[in-house]
């Protein structure tokens, strides 16, 4: 076939014979390429199909893209033994007899109350639980519910009475103030209900990211993120479930959400909190009882690792 080139692409006649002999082949090549490029621009490009395109759109982080730069696939990190370790933790938690199982935020509200009251009670129990054992939080919620744990009743109760109702939860004086301020905001801006977004929840006095994500899960049945408390923070670092050690629960939440499948975000809080209460305790963890004793990277550095490697779960 003969390639016909537009006359404006190569102008040879105006050049000297010697110049034409030296550079005409090069010009012809360039002209041919230009012609092909012009042709390709006029033809529609077939869309690229990828077998995992649907899945990629659902993932939070798969590719880093900058404008004008081709997509570059980033390596997806995950802990080497996490699936086996998670399976063992589930086995160790199968009896569901940790304090969180009977006295956590999911157990502290009145199931027969109207929806907005139930949600408010979930939020109150989460606010009281900060720096407080589940047993103490549950006792305070029992007294509050007997008194009337609604937005209206909290606002109508004087600070001294409210303090007596929630004592001895940690930082109870501050929590009296937070409960009053939060209740006033809920009544004014949300009609007595709690916000249904994390952004709205963290605007409330005394409510941080952990409480907000747990409130979304328990009160609204929506998984917005991982609720990371001191147990989840400690155990995730001990098991090596983070690319690098983290300094606080919020750093841990972000690091976990980078790799942990979203369908596990709700379960992981309940699992690790109970596991931390019973086995992987802050001081003197019961490593010799743990099914993960052979794969836990922190075991050798923990004082409780001394002794026979036997487990009551095996």
Automatic annotation (TrEMBL):
Arranged from A to Z, the UniProt key words for this protein are: 4Fe-4S, DNA damage, DNA repair, Glycosidase, Hydrolase, Iron, Iron-sulfur, Lyase, Metal-binding, Mitochondrion, Nucleus, Transit peptide
Its annotated function is as follows: Bifunctional DNA N-glycosylase with associated apurinic/apyrimidinic (AP) lyase function that catalyzes the first step in base excision repair (BER), the primary repair pathway for the repair of oxidative DNA damage. The DNA N-glycosylase activity releases the damaged DNA base from DNA by cleaving the N-glycosidic bond, leaving an AP site. The AP lyase activity cleaves the phosphodiester bond 3' to the AP site by a beta-elimination. Primarily recognizes and repairs oxidative base damage of pyrimidines.
Protein name, UniProt field: Endonuclease III-like protein 1
- The principal location of this protein is nucleus
The species this protein was found in = Acanthochromis polyacanthus (spiny chromis)
Top-level taxonomy: Eukaryota, Metazoa, Chordata, Craniata, Vertebrata
Stored Gene3D superfamilies: Helix-hairpin-Helix base-excision DNA repair enzymes (C-terminal), Hypothetical protein, domain 2
Q: Write out the GO MF terms.
A: 4 iron, 4 sulfur cluster binding; class I DNA-(apurinic or apyrimidinic site) endonuclease activity; DNA binding; metal ion binding; oxidized pyrimidine nucleobase lesion DNA N-glycosylase activity
| InterPro entries, alphabetized | DNA_glycosylase, Endouclease-III_FeS-bd_BS, HhH-GPD_domain, HhH_base_excis_C, HhH_motif, NTH1
Q: Which HAMAP family match?
A: Endonuclease_III_Nth
Name the protein family.
Belongs to the Nth/MutY family.
């Amino acid at each position: 076939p003969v390639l016909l080139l537009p006359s404006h692409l190569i102008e040879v006649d105006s050049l000297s014979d010697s110049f034409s002999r030296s550079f005409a082949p090069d010009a012809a090549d360039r002209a041919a390429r230009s012609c092909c490029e012009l042709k390709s621009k006029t033809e529609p490009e077939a869309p690229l199909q990828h077998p995992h395109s649907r899945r990629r759109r659902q993932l939070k982080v798969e590719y880093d893209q900058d404008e004008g730069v081709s997509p570059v696939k980033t390596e997806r990190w995950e802990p080497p033994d996490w699936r086996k370790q998670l399976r063992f933790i589930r086995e160790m938690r199968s009896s569901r007899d940790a304090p969180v199982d009977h006295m956590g935020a999911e157990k502290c509200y009145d199931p027969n109350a109207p929806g907005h009251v139930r949600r408010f009670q979930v939020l109150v129990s989460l606010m009281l639980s900060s720096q407080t054992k589940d047993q103490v939080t549950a006792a305070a919620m029992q007294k509050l519910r007997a008194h009337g744990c609604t937005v209206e009743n909290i606002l109508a109760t004087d600070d001294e009475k409210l303090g007596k109702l929630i004592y001895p939860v940690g930082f109870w004086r501050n929590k009296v103030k937070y409960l009053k301020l939060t209740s006033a905001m809920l009544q004014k801006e949300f009609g007595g209900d709690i916000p249904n977004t994390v952004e709205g929840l963290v605007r409330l006095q005394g409510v941080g990211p952990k409480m907000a994500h747990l409130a979304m899960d328990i009160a609204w049945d929506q998984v917005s993120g991982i609720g990371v408390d001191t147990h989840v923070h400690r155990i995730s670092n001990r098991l090596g479930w983070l690319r690098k050690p983290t300094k606080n629960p919020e750093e841990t939440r972000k690091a976990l959400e980078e790799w942990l499948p979203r369908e596990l975000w709700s379960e992981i809080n309940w699992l690790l909190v109970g596991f931390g209460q019973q086995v992987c305790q802050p001081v003197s963890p019961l490593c010799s009882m743990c099914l993960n004793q052979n794969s836990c990277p922190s075991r050798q550095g923990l004082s409780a690792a001394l002794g026979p490697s036997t487990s009551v779960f095996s």
